[in-house]
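Contributing: when you submit paired examples, paste them exactly as shown. First protein:
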Amino acid sequence: MGKTAFPSSIIKEKTDYSYQFSICTLVTDHKEYDEMKNSCIEAGFLEDDCEYLIIDNSTGNSIDAYRGLNLFLQQAKGKYIIICHQDIGMNDDKRPVLEEKIVEIDNKDPRWGVLGNAGRANMKYMAIHMTNGKTLQKFKEEDAPIRVMSVDENFIIVKNSANLALSSDLKGFHMYGADLCLIAEILGYHSYVIGFELTHKSEGNLNNEFVKAKKDFIDKFSQAIYPRFMASTAARFYIGSNPWKRTLYNSNLILFFIRQYDKFFKGKKSRTN
């Protein structure tokens, strides 16, 4: 008989992580990042069981959001990966509240993959649960956790065990929340807005880069998946492989009627249900 061949190792499903949370940020302003990190520590995200990871873009945007977030998702050692803007502050809810919300969503839907504090349930309704740092207006989503098509990029939680990634053929700093949620859905995971409140200081910038990112997103997924109406937190659109339908259904008139349909017949029910 031949010599017994032993494997190098036996792979098992991972249940133990080096950290409970990995808090990941693209940094362009170290002073603002320091304020954000200190607010997280004061909220209970201590460095004994949380790691803080950054990509340093303070001297120029050398790594865009798609590449950067993929690096975070590949290298983070936390059970839960928090991807957040440098201009948030955990001045409202604290860590025990977030852990409570994660337990709640685990019980409600073990197949969740992405959580956020704002997102589109359908073409009409946007769920928001956060404080506007400029106006100090507090948004409360009374039906949270609520399933959504996409989440806003200011604060995203990814379940590490879901092994998610962003598109390798998109780039820039817009639409990656929608990209992540759509890929999660394709892989069999769901996205939710949860009732965890923090402060977001800015309201986003829908500039020419956003317009290009939206077009690139539509073009990419029009070839990748079946036709559908889709919405990010900042835009509503139709994606499909037929160029004539894509032009027609992305017109303001058609999108208006779709919004009205969702308003009267779907309410807060997600189009992904």
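Second protein:
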Amino acid sequence: MSINAYVTGYANVKKQKAASYLPPSCVLIDGGEFQFPVDEPPDPERLVMVLTTYGRFDYEGRPETPPYDSTFLSFDFTPVKATMVLKQIGPMRIDARMEMSYSDLFTTTVTYVRVPLIAQVTALEVNGVPLDVGPSCRTEKSLTSVEPDPATHPGDHVVLYGKAEQAIGEDVVGYTLLTGGPLAGKVTIPAFTGCGTGGEDLDPLLTASVSGPGNHIKQVQGQTCTPLVPVFETPETRGQCTEDLQPFQIPVAER
């Protein structure tokens, strides 16, 4: 049973001491159910269940975000405006672990989202003058995070982390896959390649201005919509889906 949701947020560019706004992007997520972990003995003090599922960005049928503008100062004095897209180049994997205490039914859920993403520049202005970056201006590989479990999850990819807590009878505080919430992480932006036409090499400009480690990302996911069993907005219920089965909730970016 597939679900969908919007996600939006900010991505810092540490070199520029600035952040780029990432517009609401649609994410399509495969269905999945929490199951008992197969490699752990039962815990006498808490119920433990795990979930693994997969998803992808969807913009006009392509696995990418909508285009967004990033404005910064190159070498601290030249204004640069880049129109960029984050392109998914491999599976988006979502792993969640839920633990519920038998004593008070307090629930904690930890979620990791892993996805390989390249940043592609589709348009560039330097000091107000448009420059032709060509069709293949992008980071030379995926943005990368420090992976907490590299043996299980090798390769270059972004890692975002979310945590939720819920007391019995109360709303969820934090992030779960179904209810949404904030996800955060840090990435290294690789060097750029393929930028420029007609013999003009723009790779050094973008690499010097943007590339490097320690760039904080904070994304906010909205409540998911389940098209097969949609929940519409009524005076008695919170809406999860619009009438055309899109996510009802459009999240607001947080810094």
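If you have annotations for the second protein, write them as plain sentences, like these:
The longest strand covers residues 18-29.
The helical segments are 203-210.
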